[in-house]
Amino acid sequence: MNDLHAARQQVLQRIASSCVAAQRDVQSVQLLAVSKTHPSEMIRQMYVDGQRAFGENYVQEALDKIQQLAGLDIEWHFIGHVQRNKTKHLAEHFDWVHGVDRLVIAQRLSQQRQHERPLNICLQVNIDQQDSKDGCQPAEVAELVHAISQLPNLCLRGLMIIPAAGHHQAFVEAQQLFEQVKAMHQHPEHWDTLSMGMSGDLDAAIAAGATMVRVGTALFGQRDYHRS
Questions:
Q1: Domain ranges of the chain
Q2: Rounded to the nearest 5 degrees, what angle is found at the Cα of 137, between the Cα atoms of 113 and 215?
Q3: Which residues cross the membrane (predicted)?
Q4: pLDDT tens, residue by residue, 93-143
Q5: Which conformational region is residue 160 in: left (phi greater than 0), alpha (psi within -120 to 50 degrees), or beta?
Q6: Pick the CATH number of 2-220 from 3.20.110.10, 3.20.20.10, 3.20.20.70, 3.40.50.150
Q7: HSE (CB half, 13 Å, CA atoms) of 145?
Q8: How far apart are the C-alpha atoms of 34 and 55, rounded to whole Å?
Q9: Do 69 and 43 contact (CB within 8 A), yes or no?
Q10: In 27-98, which residue ranges form alpha helices assigned H by DSSP?
């Protein structure tokens, strides 16, 4: 418990320091705790410490945790690649989905969302066009944003990127793309999320304008790959 508390405080202080250096309000950056492959008890302990937003990559593992922690007011984010045959689970059980990169995925999420509250989504962009990474191309973003914005039951909040390690210029390019889309968005007040930056590069991401950083290792330690 104390280790998790100390780790979270260190990450929050790092976020605060990065915001000061970038002359930004610390409240403008949200910490998303990436809890994939870590047990529910660690999530519970971090929840007690004040953390509310948690990110998961694996659908079945996440569904198990959501059930185990049903009594807690957790904001669940799915941050993995979205497969067509998993959209129903995501639409039913999550608050956010970060990995939307095709119109058909957004359409399925919209059709399958039965909650009164819309599902918050981020468009994943392959900002530096890596062959090994998912995400739409930057040139496709404007058309996708226009189409997805028309769908009911969804609230398109912004962009998510995972650049190549050390490619900090990608953060700057993502921020520029984010602002370009905001200028043409029908509901710019909803376009408020730039999800980028992880344990190793959150400082550079915040300097470039990230509003949400996805942190796992710096909070929970190395991942437990023996997951159920």
A1: 2-220
A2: 65
A3: none
A4: 999 999 999 999 999 999 999 988 999 999 999 998 877 788 999 999 999
A5: beta
A6: 3.20.20.10
A7: 27
A8: 4
A9: yes
A10: 40-48, 59-68, 87-93
